[in-house]
UniProtKB/TrEMBL annotation:
GO terms for cellular component: membrane. It comes from Photobacterium aphoticum. Coiled coil: none annotated. Residues 69-423 form the Citrate transporter-like domain. This is Sodium:proton antiporter. Keywords: Antiport, Ion transport, Membrane, Signal, Sodium, Sodium transport, Transmembrane, Transmembrane helix, Transport. One of its GO terms (biological process) is sodium ion transport. The lineage of its organism: Bacteria, Pseudomonadati, Pseudomonadota, Gammaproteobacteria, Vibrionales. It is a multi-pass membrane protein. The chain crosses the membrane at residues 34-53, 65-85, 97-116, 137-155, 161-179, 186-209, 221-240, 261-278, 284-301, 348-369, 381-404, 416-443, 455-473. It is found in: Membrane. Belongs to the NhaD Na(+)/H(+) (TC 2.A.62) antiporter family. It comes from the Bacteria. The keyword Signal applies.
């Protein structure tokens, strides 16, 4: 954010969920050259710097943006009140709140399901299986990478990356070199896997909810996403030894209902897609209906708990199985609302602050400045490539917010391109995506910014290859 365009790009970047700036045609004021406008830019810039320094400051990222959003809108309200057009600002803030509510409820349901699967020990069982199979380092490198690519389209890239990182840390032990390169591989794979699914990343979810790309059209990005992962992975794998790590097998028993919760989650995804495709309602309506599936299943588990305990206890006593008696904890009650409380509330509140800050800056008129430069003066393909590079520095979520707020006139091919670049561009640096930032915390001192930076040329090769692949395979969409 040291030059004007980059800073305004960051600002516009966070200008997102506003899909259609209804206030622009309703008497909005151009305050880009005003004291209030400059003050808003400064406040947002300071807040976002604090967000980027979260790991070092130990300050949760939601706090600065929540405060900044309140101050920015207070200044806007004062100015619009003075000009007698406060109703324009009111419509703008209501529009932003509606957009945020859709994103909040959608993510809340998805996070609740992921939390439920974690509580039922599904992820622990997967981790134990991988550790206990006796794979060598190179095999684990490929296994964790491929699983990250496969799981992230459903479970989101952040959750997938943390799961696979836990496996790498357990197996790698004190082998810092292996842990670092394996974590880089996981970040690349999780971000690439999330790029071709609305459920894989917040950026793809926003594009889908905006109605710009249909659910099935995201599959056109599968091959480019796969290329984005495989190109750097093949090169990095050459530097991973085939030696055998020292690991001990651990038995993990799934809690009752674990597999059925996975089925319910898939059914919830299908419901959300159905609402969007058939009746053209926001996908969040289907997700909230899917939450009801989980609630009713939780009720079933609680009501049948005594009977399940008796059956398991009787079977264990009949077989004289002391170990089974000790494992009766796997038959435990299930509380949906406790799972809701375990959602990543700091992230959800951070999105609120981002959306409201962006909404305020858009109403001030800065969005038009960025849109004019990027999508009127540049070729859209090059603009979308730059969006991906910017996402490596700023984080892909605010960058995609910016593009959606601009609402440029783009072909389907270009909307898919910006979805791809914003999703996988964050892999270029460890701070460019939620997966990378989370792994720097989970593998502190073993997976680092500079450790990731060393492999950036290889990752950039995959980034370029995925763009070329998309332009070649999907040229009919441009």
């Amino acid at each position: 954010m040291k030059n004007t365009y980059l800073f305004v790009g960051v600002v516009g970047a966070v200008l997102s969920l506003l899909a259609t700036p209804v206030w622009a045609a309703a008497g909005g004021l151009d305050l880009t050259q005003s004291t209030v406008g400059y003050a808003a830019l400064l406040i947002f810039g300071v807040a976002y710097c604090l967000v980027m320094g979260e790991e070092y400051l130990q300050l949760r990222k939601s706090k600065p943006v929540l405060l900044a959003a309140g101050i920015i809108w207070l200044m806007i309200g004062f100015v619009y009140q003075q000009h007698g057009v406060i109703d324009v600002a009111q419509r703008a803030i209501e529009h932003n709140l509606l957009e945020y509510a859709e994103l909040l409820l959608f993510l809340l349901v998805a996070m609740t399901y992921i939390s439920a699967m974690e509580e039922r020990r599904l992820f622990d069982a997967l981790q134990a299986w991988m550790v206990g199979k006796g794979f060598n380092y190179r095999s684990l490198f490929w296994l964790t990478g491929i699983l990250s690519f496969v799981i992230s389209p459903i479970a989101d890239n952040l959750t997938t990356a943390l799961l696979m990182c836990a496996v790498v840390l357990k197996v790698g032990g004190s082998n810092i070199r292996f842990i670092n390169i394996a974590c880089i591989n996981i970040v690349i794979a999780a971000n690439a896997g999330g790029a071709f699914s609305p459920f894989g990343d917040i950026t793809t979810l926003m594009v889908w909810q905006a109605g710009l790309v249909s659910f099935m059209q995201f599959l056109d990005l599968f091959v480019p996403s796969l290329v984005n992962y495989l190109v750097p992975a093949v090169i990095m794998a050459l530097f991973v030894p085939k030696t055998q790590p020292n690991t001990a097998h651990e038995y993990v028993e799934l809690k009752r209902g674990a597999r059925r919760i996975v089925v319910l989650f898939i059914l919830t995804i299908m419901t959300a897609v159905g609402f969007h495709a058939w009746v053209h309602f926001p996908p969040v309506i289907g997700m909230m209906m899917g939450l009801a599936y989980l609630q009713f299943f939780g009720f079933f588990l609680r009501k049948t708990l005594p009977r399940s305990l008796e059956k398991k206890k009787a079977a264990a006593m009949a077989n004289n199985d002391d170990a089974a008696l000790q494992r009766l904890g796997s038959v435990v009650p299930f509380d949906v609302f406790k799972r809701v409380s375990h959602a990543e509330w700091d992230t959800l509140l951070f999105f609120y602050g981002v959306v409201m800050c962006v909404g305020g800056l858009s109403l001030l008129g800065y969005l038009g400045m960025v849109s004019e430069v990027m999508y009127s003066q540049w070729n859209p393909i090059w603009a979308n490539i730059v969006v991906g590079l910017l996402s490596a520095v700023v984080d892909n979520i605010p960058v995609m917010f910016a593009v959606l707020t601009m609402q440029p006139e783009l072909s389907l091919g270009n909307w898919l391109l910006v979805t791809l670049t914003a999703g996988v561009g964050g892999s270029l640096l460890s701070i460019g995506s939620a997966a990378g930032v989370a792994l720097m915390g989970a593998a502190h001192g073993k997976y680092t910014f500079f450790g990731h930076l060393k492999w950036m040329p290889v990752i950039a090769l995959g980034y370029a290859a995925s763009i070329v692949c998309h332009l070649w395979l999907n040229q009919h969409l441009f």
